[in-house]
Amino acid sequence: MPNLPRQVTRFAAALLATAGAALAAAPSSAPGSRTFTPADKPPPPPPAPSPELVKEGTRVFRGACIGCHGEKGDGQGREGKLLPIPPRDFTVGQFISRSTPSGSLPLDADLFRSIRRGFRPEVGMPPFTFLTDREVWAAISYLKTFSDRWKSEEVPPPVEVPSPPPRTAQRVAEGAKAYKEIGCFQCHGETGRGDGPSAAALLYDNGKPVRTADFTRPQDFKVGSSEREIFRTLTVGMDGTPMPSFAESLTVDQRWNLVYFIKSLGEQK
How far apart are CA 19 and CA 17, in angstroms? Predict the structure, then answer.
């Protein structure tokens, strides 16, 4: 389906227009309800937890999220079934984009950033820039009702992302060496185009096929393509996918080397 990304983009645009109109018809009168903090800025403090916030989140979810994530939050929405990359199943409490250690729940700020920024076009998750900050927080409060993990587990502190060392040709070369030694090429390919020998067989935990990241297209990185974002992804992994955490298998220095090699793949002409 060569035009699938374009179709997904059109679908996302239609979803945004429909959801935006529906939500605009029921504006919140709570203090600060009309602020819109961009994804590249720290999110504002969340409202105090309350039944009213969950109720507002229900409205937001039904207006903007239910089509893909489904009424039960299990990723089985009518439109979501058409997407090549499955929508997140909130009932299992697994999240790909996190700043917390592998296997743990994300920070509320992680969820805020994901909703505000969206993901790459093939995912079908657009940036929800029309939602107010309060509406984003409300949606987060509601999506937490789908999994008991939010009741039984504590959210740990975020992993540390140290200041990056200077990028050098030697570091890029060491990163290329690590890329081969730890088997990144098996999934991402020798040249980082997502065409490794294992790529076609990769599956999400729910059994649906994975579309492996193409490192030559940094604009399509699912959880961010900055140096710090790539380092974080290598450190915490992507829960629910075959992408593991390299926090134990690679030193901090080795991870930075790998970051610089991955970045170099997207700079080649």
Answer: 6
Instruction: Report d(CA 90, CA 214) in Å as an integer.
Output: 26
Region(s) of the chain under CATH 1.10.760.10: 169-265
d(CA 141, CA 46): 10
Q: What CATH number belongs to 169-265?
A: 1.10.760.10
What are 57-96's pLDDT values in tens digits?
A: 999 999 999 999 999 999 999 998 888 778 999 999 999 9
Give residue 19's pLDDT. 53
Per DSSP, what are the bridge partners of residue 203?
209
